[in-house]
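#structure-requests
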Amino acid sequence: MRMISITEALASILISWIPDPKFAAQWGALVFQWPLTVEQLMSRQEQHDVTSLCLMNLDEPIGFIEIVEESPQECRLCRIIISPQYRGQGLGVNLLKRSLIYISSHYPSMQKVSLAVFEHNNSARHCYESVGFSYTDKISSRQVGDEDWTLLHMTKAIEDARNV
């Protein structure tokens, strides 16, 4: 397996993994408009502080993650997803570990990696916990339709990330 930068063709495949507006809101944290488009994803990738990567198994994309430079000391992992046909096989952990290795090698000044996860997304929370992310005191919320979703914040020290 390897990590590569997203392309328009890969963005099109990624969009097929997002079945509806509610799932899109959970995955995209309201950064994108529904329906998702290749143009939205590629435009996001062009931002100077965003790196969008696909986890590939040979020529098949099986996961996606964004790395956002929050500051010279902190990267944030965002929009993490595994292809529906590969969920539940530990590939989320693989994607996270490879992303942490990528951060360690491409961002030498980073001291911490953070992410946020909706409280009701139990499978993602378990995945992040298993890689060593821990919850912070910060809790926020997002209004999605007529629902209020609680957003939990997690961090991991980069020196810990180098030992995943």
